[in-house]
Design brief:
The chain is of the alpha/beta class. It folds into two domains: about 60 residues, Helicase, Ruva Protein, domain 3 (Orthogonal Bundle), CATH 1.10.8; about 200 residues, 3-Layer(aba) Sandwich (Rossmann fold). The protein is built from eleven helices and nine strands. The strands form two sheets. The chain has a seven-stranded mixed beta sheet with strand order 5-4-3-6-7-9-8, with helices on both faces. It has a two-stranded antiparallel ribbon with strand order 1-2. β3, α7 and β4 form a beta-alpha-beta unit. The protein starts with a helix and ends in a 10-residue tail after the last strand.
Length: about 290
């Protein structure tokens, strides 16, 4: 239909403009996937090649609002290639600020807990940077835990990352984990039930990992009061928040005896809270 990849990409980007905020990028990623090469290799070496037969079907899936990460089966996060499926949230670049803040706040962490691990993105990114640390990722979804365990194995981190079925809404959930922990990570559900979301999100990502009641605060109300009992003296928790939730979640933290410090993402939006018991000296080391 199109003589070269270059012309096919232009046409695909035009079609995707009605579906995606990044139509050209989507077209390039899908073309690279069809060719079995990296996007940079595509742009440098293949623009005049013939279009692979599978490309048209990939574009049709994207036009139907399927996320690019679901089509390719992979998403990069903090430099790590992660497998993703419809059973887990797609890791977003904005969440990398939580990893950066965690590493800065607790560079000597030896025991790490990731609450609601999903694909394992937060836990595996931190463990990749802290070679002495051991971590546990919990999730209530067996399908998500299978994805996280597979990612740990693919990245050579399975010996230091244990994936465990647990639900912080249930009494006694933390007892088998053998805490306390130097560093706790969490990207809990925080979207309001009635929020307007892009069709690629609402229709393709797991609702249980997105929605948290009328105000989007239900998960925080359950998890945050439990954090002080899970932290070592001087330990730190990093919790992702919605961009309008800093005040409400900070108030929940304060009521639980935790001091909160805000971190913003590269777009300047409120993104994560750093929570700790105000004990003075940090126990996270350096």
């Amino acid at each position: 239909m199109f003589p070269t990849i270059n012309t096919a990409l232009r046409a695909a980007a035009e079609r995707l403009a009605a579906t995606s905020d990044t139509p050209r990028l989507d077209a390039e990623v899908l073309m690279a996937h069809a060719l079995g090469v990296s996007r940079s290799d595509l742009l440098l070496r293949h623009m005049r090649d013939a279009v692979p037969d599978s490309f048209a079907a990939l574009i049709e899936r994207r036009l139907g609002h399927a996320p690019v990460a679901h089509i390719t089966g992979q998403q990069e996060f903090f430099g790590l290639p992660l497998r993703v499926t419809p059973d887990v949230l797609i890791p977003r670049g904005d969440s990398e600020v939580l990893v950066e803040a965690a590493l800065a706040a607790c560079p000597g962490a030896l025991r790490v807990l990731d609450c609601g691990t999903g694909s394992g993105a937060l836990l595996l990114a931190v463990l990749a940077q802290l070679p002495e640390a051991q971590g546990i990722g919990i999730d209530r979804s067996p399908a998500a835990l299978a994805v996280a365990a597979d990612n740990a194995a693919r990245l050579g981190l399975a010996a230091r990352a244990m994936m465990v079925a647990a639900d912080w809404d249930q009494s006694g959930w933390a007892a088998p984990l053998g805490g306390p922990f130097d560093l706790i990570l969490a990207n809990p559900p925080y979207v309001e039930d009635a929020a307007e979301l892009a069709p690629s999100v609402r229709g393709h990502e797991p609702a249980g990992a997105l929605f948290a009641g009328a105000e989007g605060l239900d998960a925080y109300r359950m998890l945050i009061p439990q954090l002080p009992g899970l932290l070592t003296p001087g330990g730190v928790a990093l919790v992702e928040i919605g961009y309008r939730q800093a005040a409400a979640v900070s108030a929940l933290a304060g009521a639980a005896g935790l001091a909160a410090a805000l971190h913003r993402d590269l777009g300047g939006r409120d993104r994560a809270l750093e929570l700790k018991i105000p004990l003075g000296k940090s126990g996270c080391g350096g």
